[in-house]
């Protein structure tokens, strides 16, 4: 199979990649309508007008297809969060932090099937990415923002009571281009899990609030967490 970042050089490779994308696009449409439990390669083959066995050269099993869809969704989410932070001035650490967490909620609420694939029960993985990879990567982005704020004196996270209480020795995600202290990563993880919990309830229809009340609740929760970390109230 052609790797994600590899440019296909031959007609056969281009055709292969186009078929992979067609399968995934149909699968995403079916996920929205039916959910992951009933998604099948047989149904996708029927939609494409081919025999089911023709698809197994692209995805050996239902699990491989779901994993590919989950990886695509994770990449989309991480890029959405990254871009939200990138448009804020690099010196506005509070603004970047708030924008990133708002972007996380926005992405989840508009991509619930992709969210569910990444944050539902962890299936057996067929790639080198462990089930917690997406969590490490999203928290890594947030931790980088907090580390920048700590480094320029906006925050003092190394002596923060939250960091002192919950700091754990973690393997810092390798994609970060700045060093992140384990205490800073732990604070970012604690804040993100609080936000993730309420967003998960909202995405699955279990948050007992109207849409408007859910918006207000999220903003109040975000403001409280941001203040607790040490950013000035705005």
TrEMBL record:
DNA-binding region positions on the chain: 40-59
Coiled coil stretches, renumbered: none
An example molecular function term from Gene Ontology annotations: DNA-binding transcription factor activity
Keywords of the record: DNA-binding, Transcription, Transcription regulation
Domain of life: Bacteria
UniProt xrefs under InterPro entries: Homeodomain-like_sf (IPR009057), HTH-type_TetR-like_transc_reg (IPR050109), HTH_TetR (IPR001647), MT1864/Rv1816-like_C (IPR025996), Tet_transcr_reg_TetR-rel_C_sf (IPR036271)
Pfam families, per the entry: TetR_C_33, TetR_N
Domain called HTH tetR-type: residue spans: 17-77
Name listed for the protein in its UniProt record: TetR family transcriptional regulator
Species name: Barrientosiimonas humi
């Amino acid at each position: 199979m052609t790797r994600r970042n590899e440019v296909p050089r031959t007609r056969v490779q281009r055709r292969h990649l186009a078929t992979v994308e067609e399968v995934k696009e149909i699968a995403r449409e079916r996920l929205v309508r039916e959910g992951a439990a009933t998604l099948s390669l047989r149904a996708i083959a029927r939609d494409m007008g081919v025999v089911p066995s023709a698809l197994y050269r692209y995805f050996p099993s239902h699990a491989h297809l779901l994993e590919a869809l989950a990886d695509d969704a994770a990449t989309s989410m991480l890029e959405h969060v990254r871009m939200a932070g990138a448009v804020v001035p690099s010196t506005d650490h509070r603004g970047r932090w708030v924008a990133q967490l708002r972007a996380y909620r926005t992405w989840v609420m508009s991509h619930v099937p992709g969210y569910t694939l990444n944050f539902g029960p962890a299936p057996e993985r067929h790639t080198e990415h462990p089930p917690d990879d997406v969590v490490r990567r999203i928290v890594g982005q947030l931790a980088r923002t907090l580390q920048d704020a700590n480094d320029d004196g906006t925050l003092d996270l190394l002596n923060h009571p939250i960091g002192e209480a919950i700091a754990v020795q973690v393997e810092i995600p390798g994609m970060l281009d700045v060093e992140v202290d384990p205490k800073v990563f732990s604070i970012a993880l604690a804040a993100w899990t609080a936000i993730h919990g309420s967003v998960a309830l909202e995405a699955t229809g279990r948050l007992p609030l109207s849409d408007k009340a859910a918006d207000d609740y999220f903003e109040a929760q975000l403001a409280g967490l941001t203040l607790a970390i040490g950013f000035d109230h705005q």
